[in-house]
Prior knowledge:
Blueprint: E1 2-3, E2 6-7, H1 12-21, H2 33-47, H3 52-59, H4 63-70, H5 78-88, H6 92-111
Antiparallel strand pairs: 1-2
Helix pairs in contact: 2-6, 3-4, 3-5
Amino acid sequence: MAVSGRPVVIDIRTRRAAEERGPAIPDGSDPLLRTVYGEILRDERLDQDRTLDDVARAVGMSKQYLSEVERGRKEPSSEMLHSVCDALGLPIEHLLTRAVRRITASRRIATGRPSGTPQAQLLAA
Length: 125
């Protein structure tokens, strides 16, 4: 698939998981950061075939709280995010980088054009 003649790379696993969950923000605005972080943490946990209980115990939090973090319903502290990332062996900078990529990709999909492309250009006559 291409948008404006440019190829688009789609992570099928992530797309299927997102389709099952439904749109995080139905009005087309940027997703909340906590929602994006939660999706990434869940994807990483599932990729490792680990349970909520396993990761929650490693972090020292309840399974219910971790589930709410993964679903974007709770806003974890930076310390809590760091602890979950450590339990998953995911460097915190990878969480941040992946979040930026997902938000950028959602903007491209929502607008139908690459991020940063101006909507209108003014040219001097």
